[in-house]
Give the backbone structure.
Amino acid sequence: MKVDARLYADLETLLRTGMNMSDALRTAAAIVAGTYRAAWETGRCPDGVRPTITRYFIEAYDAGQEPVRGAVQTTVPTPYRERPTAGPTP
């Protein structure tokens, strides 16, 4: 695998959390792969087709709930659920 300037910068960002290189790659792969699986399982995208990820949601920072420095993220984001639309306005 070739590490170009963009990949290097992305890895540097992940390493700032205290993860080692393997854990940073494992975390990134788990988040993206989990998002792809969710898109396929919910029918948002046909199976095997790369979904276009256009939004994300980050929980508000809470110092009391901060993960241990260097910890690998093992959770995968939950799929976005569309909000029900209100019917036509009378």
